[in-house]
Amino acid sequence: MEIVVCLKQIVDPEIPASEFRLDPVTKRQIRGSHALVISTYDENALEVALQLKEKQGGKVTAVTIGEEQATEALRKALAMGADSAVLISDPPLLEADDLGKARVLARAIRKLTTPDLILCGCESADWVSRIVGPFLAEELGLPCVTFGTRIEPRDGKIVVRRIVEDGYHLVEAALPAVVTIASDETNTPRLPKVRDIMAAVKKPITLLRMADLGIEPGSLKEMEGRIVLQDVAIPVREARCEFIEGDTPEEQAERLVLRLKELKVI
Question: Does the global pTM surpass 0.90?
Fold first, then answer.
C-alpha cells in the first residue's frame, strides 16, 4: 500500500501564552527562537500510516510545505519509520492560504506517486484549520473521510472509524482516498529509537521547487484561494483578586454572599 502523509511544522503549541507573538502586518505567528514540532494530529496520521505499512506492507512518504528548517520535521518522520520524505519549498508558495497549499500538495503528489491513501491531521495545531484535507481530496478528485482514528483495509477498500459527538461511525471508502486523522489510544505516535534518529540524518530528502511542479511565477494567481483573513488577535485576559475580610469563617461566608449578590453573580 502506497501511503502519503501530509505534515506541517509549527511552533510548539505548548509554549506559554505570554510568549506568543503576531506579526502586525502579515497576521502570522512570529516563530523567533521557539522550538518547532510536527503538528499534533499530523503525527497521529503518520502513526496510522506506519501501522498500516506494518500490517499490509508498502511505502510511506512524508510531504511538507515549508522553509528549509522544515527538514527537521521530515527527519523525525523518517526516524519514526517513513520510507521517504519530500520538502516543497519556494518563498512564494509559503504565502499561499489553505486552498493554495492543497493545490500545491496535489501537484506534488501527482508528480511523485499514485498513492492508495493520503493521510492528513484532522486540524492544524496552530491555526486549528480543518480544511486542507478536504480541499486536497477535491483537487485530486478523491473521496474524503474526516476525523478518522483507525483504518482497516478490506477487499480493496478501507473502513474508517470516524469519531462523532456521541460515539463513532464506521465509514467505508473506495481507494484511493483521503482521510484526516484525529487522535485516540490506538494511534499515539511512537518514539523513534536513537539508532533510527541517527540513520534518518543520512537519508536523502527530495526538494521540490515551483519549477518542478510546473508553477510559473506569472501563474501564482492559480495558487491563491478564496480565504480572506480579516484579523487575528491574542485574547487579553484580565484577572482581579478580592479578599473577603472577617473574624470568623461564618462572617467571611456571609460577606462573600453579600459581595456576590452585589456583583449579580448570585
Answer: no
